[in-house]
Amino acid sequence: MVHIREPGPHDAAALGRVHVAAWQTGYRGIFPDEQLAGMSVEEREQAWTRILDHPSRLGMVRLVATLQDDGPVVGFAVAGPARHDETVGELHALNVDPDVWGRGVGGALLEAATDHLIGQGFETAVLWVATGNVRARRFYERAGWRDDEVEREEEVLGVTAHERRYRRDLPADAPS
Description:
By secondary structure, the protein is an alpha+beta fold. The chain has helices at 12-26, 33-37, 41-52, 105-119, 134-142; strands at residues 3-5, 61-66, 73-81, 89-96, 124-130, 146-156, 159-169. The chain has one domain: Aminopeptidase (3-Layer(aba) Sandwich), CATH 3.40.630.30. It contains five helices and seven strands; from the N terminus they run βαααβββαβαββ.
């Protein structure tokens, strides 16, 4: 069973570990090997410490997933108003430890993040996914997100990512 909660400062180390593991596995063959190999758990932990030390922006939510009530963090998601259009919700990030891929963690995080966006009153949500990340694209498509064929180049953790935008209409009256 997947448990979802908001993270606290004590979660920074686990978030750093999950972030690096997810990227090094999920983006293999998409981003340069040397960039992925150079990712530092300690650097990501420090970044998460800074993030968690500040309240989230209005309408934003940070979520972590565990497989037990007080178990280690195995995934995270961030959702809230879109960066470029605050009338639209956005899934800003979703990363899961590769050791638990296929166990429902990503789906539970996606559902919780989507429920948050619905609760914030958004009628539409978007997310950006690396064009070459076929696994992630299939995951989002199975969950009802659709590629709307908008592309961009975005620098993400020092790497230029070629991304596609996915969109989903959100129900106004009930969680996803």
